[in-house]
Amino acid sequence: MIGTVYLVGAGPGDPGLITVRGLAVLRGADVVVHDHLVPRALLAEAKPGAEIVYAGKRAADHIMRQARINELLVERALAGLAVCRLKGGDPFVFGRGGEEALHLAEHGVPFEIVPGVTAAVGVPAYAGIPVTHRAFCASVSISTGHEDPEKDGSDIDWTGLAGPKKTVVFYMGVRNLASIAAKLTEAGLAGDTPAALVHRGATAQQRTAVGTLATIARIAETEKFEPPCLIVVGEVVRLREKLAWFENRPLFGRSVVLTRPRERGGLLKDALASRGAHVIEFPTIRIVPPEDGAPLRDAAARVDEFYGLIVTSASAVEPFFEALLATGRDARALAGLLVAAVGPATAEALRARGIVPDLLPEKAHAESLAQALASRGGLAGKRFLFPQGDLAGDALARALEAEGASVTGVVAYRNIPEAWNGRAVAALFEERTPDAVVFTSPSTARNLAACLGTERYERWKSSPCVFASIGPRNDAGDEGVGAARRP
Question: Is the pTM of this model over 0.85?
Answer without folding.
Answer: no
